Structures are given as structure tokens and as C-alpha cells.
What we know:
The chain is of the alpha+beta class. The chain is built from 2 helices and 3 strands; from the N terminus they run βαβαβ.
Amino acid sequence: MAKIKITQVKSIIDRSERQKRTMQALGLTKMNQSVEVEATDAIIGMVRKVNHLIAIERI
């Protein structure tokens, strides 16, 4: 599978609890923090739910 790099670019303050938990599940807890993950169907689904808070790059 392909890998993607996900970077948090916006704060999760004043976001719904569901979005906060999705960000935590992706491994993002701080601003400008990046993680590299496999692009599985589950990860892609989580990325779509919080795409307004993150930046995505293919590796």
C-alpha cells in the first residue's frame, strides 16, 4: 500500500468530540505535527472526515 503524510494545520479547539477523537486516532495531537501512515480504507475514511483540519501528501 502507498504511504501518506498527514500534517495537522488547524486547531481542534471548538470542534466536535467525534473530530477530536478522529484526530487522536490518526496520531495527531499538536499543531504542525506530522505522521506517516499506510493509506488503508479506514485511514482514508478518517482523513475525509477531518480534511479541513489537515494537509495530506503522498509519499
